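Input record (Table S2, row 1540):
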Amino acid sequence: MILTAGIDVGASSVKIAVLEYGTKNAGSPHRAIYLAGERFHKRDPKLVIRGCFESALRACDLSEDDFAYIASTGEGDLISFRRGHFYGMTTHARGAQFLFPSTRSVLDIGALHARAMRVDERSKVLQYQMTGQCASGSGQFLENIARYLGVGLEEVGPLSMRARRPEIVSGICAVLAETDVINMVSRGVETADILRGIHESIGGRLVRLLRAIKAESPVTITGGLARDTGLMAVLREKLSSEGTPLEIQTHDHSALAGALGAALWAGFRHERLAA
Amino acid sequence: MTRLRPTVAEIVEQTLALYEDLDFSYVRAWKSKSTSRRAVGFMPVYMPREIIHAAGMLPVGVMGGGDRLDIIKGDAYFQSYLCHIPRSTIELALSHRLDSLDGMVFPSICDVIRNLSGMWKLLFPEKMARYLDFPQNFDPALGGRFYRQELESLRSALSELNALPPQDSALTHSICLFNKNRRLVKALYDLRASKPWLVPTYEAYLLLRAGNILDVEEHTQLLEDYLVRVESEPRKPMDNIRVIVVGSFCEQPPLGLILTLERAGCYIVDDDFVLASRWITADISKTGDPLEALVEAYLKNSTFHSSKFEGSTPKWRHLIEQVKARQADGVVFAAPSFCDPALLDQPQYEKGLEEAGIAHTTFKYAENTGQFQNIREQIGTFSDSLKLWSEAP
Amino acid sequence: MGYTLGIDLGSTTTKAILLDANDRIVGRGLTNTRSNYEVATAVAESEAKINAHFTFLKEAVDSSPKLSSQAAPLLNNLENRFHLVQHLHRVNRLRRQCLFEAAADRLLPHQPRLTTVLNALFDQIHERAERSFSTADVDRSRFFRDIVGSEYMALAEEQSRESSIALDLLMGLYDKSILVEENQVLDLSFVEAIQQAVEAAGESETLTRVQQKALREVVEEAASQTLEVDNMVGTGYGRQRLPFRKDQIRSEILCHGLGAHYFFPGTRTVLDIGGQDTKAIQVDSQGIVTSFQMNDRCAAGCGRYLGYIADELNLGLHQLGPLALQAKRPVRITSTCTVFAGAELRERLSMGDAREDILDGLHRAIILRAMSLLARSGGITDEFTFTGGVAKNPAAVRALTRLVEENYGTMKINIHPDSIFTGAVGAALYARHTQGGIA
Amino acid sequence: MTTPPAARPPEIHKEPSMLLQKNMLADYFTRVSKAREEGKKIAYTFVPGNLTELLHAFDVVPVYPEINALQNGMRKRSAKFILDAEKIGHSEDVCTYVKADLGMLLNGNVGPTGEIIPEPDILLLSYTGCFTFMKWFEILKQHYPKAEVVMLQVPYQGEGTPTPAMREYIVRQLRESVIPAFERISGHRFEEDRLREQLRRSAEAEEGLVFALQSARRRPSPIDAYFGGVYYIGPMFTAFRGTPECVDYYDTLREEIQNRIDAHAGPITPEGPMAEEKYRLIVEGPPNWTHFREFWKLFYDEGAVVVASTYTKVGGLYDQGFRHNPDDPLGTLADYCMGCYTNLNLPTRVELIEKYIRDFEADGFLINSIKSCNSFSSGQLLILRELERRTGKPGGFFESDLVDPRYFSAANIKNRLESYLQMLDQRRSQAVA
Ligand SMILES: Nc1ncnc2c1ncn2[C@@H]1O[C@H](COP(=O)(O)OP(=O)(O)O)[C@@H](O)[C@H]1O
Ligand SMILES: Nc1ncnc2c1ncn2[C@@H]1O[C@H](COP(=O)(O)OP(=O)(O)O)[C@@H](O)[C@H]1O
Ligand code: SF4
Ligand code: SF4
Ligand code: SF4
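Output record (iron/sulfur cluster complex):
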């Protein structure tokens, strides 16, 4: 057994996974011993990453030298203490399949990007599609809206599910959404209906991403928005009613899938290098 | 007189300087050698440059403004949902950077370039601006005949620029020069395909771009120098995948994008950048009527392409052949945003590749894209996926 | 004598202008736009009226033999006090709202601790306000929301560290409460507030008894002046939803053209960069619009872009420009999208690029977009007037000046200190001149 | 504010000609759906530069994918179709007519009227003024491997006038490849007299269309030459040209317009008759189909009447004198193909609109710039400036799409239209003062 770490640097937060990697020889299963994420909150990402990593060391009572391999993913350039780097989709695919071995497609929904991947049983990415250079419909977008509505992130999902008459919106700017939302509020649209409308629109885009890669069931959702139960509900609904039905699954550790995947690939790579 | 071959580094430096020179100083310098010299610009994708050359003029490929040109006035002419190249081309012209060109030819490639020809007529009435139609009917008696008439009419329009009557012998001579040039470009592409670590696409691309502006003989020499010199460069193969890039035939990807592709683990073993230099795939006949030879080359020996009607063989078949010939691991579709010809072809290509079990990936860009993160992630994953999994868990 | 009122309901700010019968500006009102447009309009209008009262007050003080010697400091002080009174009033309302939110069911287990923390927090906000408002230069361009918001955020961070109450929870309470607070009209009349201000001023200033009495008199007189509004016209982003008659609504393009003409009769091209839209307008010698262009619904080309960046850096909007002016090695920003630019900014910062260098690039980016809009509207013709909130930003002005010079040659570039009111002035002019039926 | 369910929208006003057309269209789609049973061959082909008379001469039933897309747009079916096409990999960026058509195909090729549109035997790629047409049929060819593509390339008027070489190219293609292909596939011999007969009727109906279009020179204009105009060109530009029904339709139309002229009445709109003609406008560019009525209403509400439009010329510039000439059947088809609006180069388009602005005494002009259509849209901003410079009339610029509802923002367009019209007002009052 060896120790590996995966550090996923996202647009809004850093996520760390520490893994007991069951090598081929040992034959033991891989086991995550530490999983955590922290948001940058306008602070210097480098410092947050370092701080977060040190908390992990402290919590596991380890030092940097104990690791066989530290891998970065995402904006890994910010990490000086990594040994190798894996691309985001490679790690999310691996992480998702670790959480749910049955995974055939992965939908990673983060702060700025969403990407859909179709994977084989060895978590090889067969096809994928990402969103572009406009943050409309991204996690950050949703966060902004929640802020304008004075709703906490964790309330977004439950509220949206209470909607009765979703207010359909489309393609609104993540930044200017403030006024659109204000307009809706001033027209007396319920908060729940606004949120649901936005979920519908984001959901529509996500479904298109999934369809574009000819996603297969089951789809594992990774990234921070996996926590948004409202969005998940919309996705479930759309994916069961439009085209070939797709089943989706989320895990408590969905948001950490990238870090997990990186730690897993780290172990794999270490073994190959050692061989 | 013996001449010292420039080194690879020098060639790269020279071609990069040419690439970055948005003022086309080379053209000015070339023209300043004689008052009768004329230069004629042409838009992508294909232009029978021989005709311009034979008229004693410098054919200059105008490929937009790339990523270093600020668009100040160009947006005044194009809506946001149109591709980028026409606006940067207009910007170049309005900022007097194209003043050294005595005329422009707009080959038939898409509606945007077609309309640009009319815009040129409205904006710069004092300059020659010609639309050049290509045949979509490949019957020599129909499309061939029509194309010949187009070429004749272009020829006489050119001869008005410097009052020299067209001469068949000159055209034949030009055909020979360009044949040689095409052979060397082909050699460059073949070398890159067989030893991609030796010929980074960054360099190959700059060399092609230089061919857009340099006098053909000078360019041919440069290619020769490069091919000789690069063999002895101390370059080592890397664990990269081999890909073909498709869709970038008109608006060109920024250099940063080409670098990103290479850095994210890809060897580009074929592409459709600066296609005019490779549109004709075999030597053009140097015997007989030279115009007829140009027409025949177009009808029979031109590459498959989005703005050419595919006839009975779907384009994806050609692409699959290319993948096999180049022993590529996969295909990268990189098309400019809003490029109808490239984007409408993509799903057909994709379908064909899928049936043939060839990996592929798709993204869009603009010539002035500055953000490559997304693309890097995507291409990185693509190359990861093709190489990591030989023995994955 | 009647006044006309022009309201420009912008996406970020709502502006009100009062013109007297001679088209002289007597009152300016500015507030941030919020979900309830009527509130925004009402607040801007009342601010304009307050401002008009101060205009009258100033005239009265200036002409009062007993007070004129100390007019400037006195008025300044009075105005600061006045705003402090208003401000504290709102802080208290916000405190009550936060406490109310903290009593929500799901928070019950935390409530006792929350109450303590919130009270401590608001006590400090209160104290700080007392201090900052008494020192002369308060930055009036920052609205209640911004001033209180940044203080709250800083204090909440402190409190959460000390008290183990999650920062997110505290911020959530604030976000909810500020919305409620903002959508109420101020329930404090000019007279009440000014009297409190006079009391306070009387105590602190070294005024003689006679002077104090004189002050009370002029204040009373100014406060009692009625502001009879004959007609009003609304314009701006939210004009369709203003509670106005159709003939009292004008397109913001027209109002901007006319407003720019009011300030600078030689204007031929107007660039307005507001919060949510950017407009390039060509006007004729009468201020009548001949052509215009507006940007798409994308924050990347307008004021919100800078606002977003300022938020990212935890800076006030007014600090952004001056910082950018100090750039030494400007950075080229590659993202178009505001949100991505924000991410790029953070990334570059942590890579070691200087804040001012990045800011310079960001300013240039927004102006480049404006240049393209200008080109689309027909280019730039002498004289050129720059209006809207962003005209207050010196780095944006510098970038614009340079690009205009490079691409259109030298010309007169006008920026008026009241430029943010351009649309409202245009609206007020329409209100006056449509009355006689010259529509 | 929501409308209570009980309150029905007001009755839509329809002119007799509109009802007639509606029936013609319904019959047509029925005919199409039954064509196969009746042993007829089916050709898919495009509107600009279509060879309807020739198809009829071979008894081949024409199907126009553009018209299907348009009709589906008006019936609010296109949004789903477009999404479906995007699902199979088509880009958001490309022409939505193509995507709407592919989407319909993916959904069983059920046409706008609910009847199934049969597969094509022929893909007649006679395309004028747009490259996308070529791509479109390349794609369709993959879906219909049995169909034969027949190419008729129509050269673009790059230098402003059709040259004899271009005309000859088209005529030769017709004679040497198109007609033989049709003879082979349809099993009918080419009968030139049948074609002549058709062309004669075409020319007759064309007179009627021109009467309608020219009637807008009057004040008040009895027609709206854009929103109404798209109906007036319907039979002429599609499957009816050359048929007796087409002639009848234009007779009815003529009578109807004459009645309004006599009554000094303005156009009939779906909201009712136009009250007062406050503005006379020229419009360049196609309309948006998904919100057609909403779009029209914006004009109606403001008293804006469109007196001439370029969209009504995509199927030929009859108002500029062109008539099908039965005495030179193939030559006239060639002239027709080359003369369609989007086959004109930009300087010619500018001249044409300039002429409309003057001839129809317009107060200004508007450009509805369509995201889908590079052929129309690329260069329109220059057209705008050029026209403003030449005529001194202000131009307004809108952006929308043909059949993709995602690109129609009523609020935005309303805002722009209002601002634009207020601007016209201001300039008028200034001119008076
Ligand atoms: N409980 C939650 N409900 C809804 N959204 C959430 C929740 N928690 C996190 N998010 C969303 O997740 C996003 C962050 O996702 P993440 O995958 O960490 O992004 P990145 O890796 O790009 O930083 C945030 O933008 C936020 O909107
Ligand atoms: N003091 C200031 N310094 C710099 N920029 C400012 C200042 N005040 C406002 N702005 C800028 O102006 C924008 C608001 O402009 P404004 O014309 O009021 O917009 P709108 O009319 O759309 O509400 C803000 O987004 C901000 O970028
Ligand atoms: S619309 Fe908004 S979210 Fe989209 S690119 Fe523009 S600024 Fe970014
Ligand atoms: S990039 Fe594509 S759409 Fe644009 S001009 Fe070139 S070929 Fe035409
Ligand atoms: S691009 Fe324009 S002309 Fe061509 S098919 Fe699309 S809508 Fe029709």
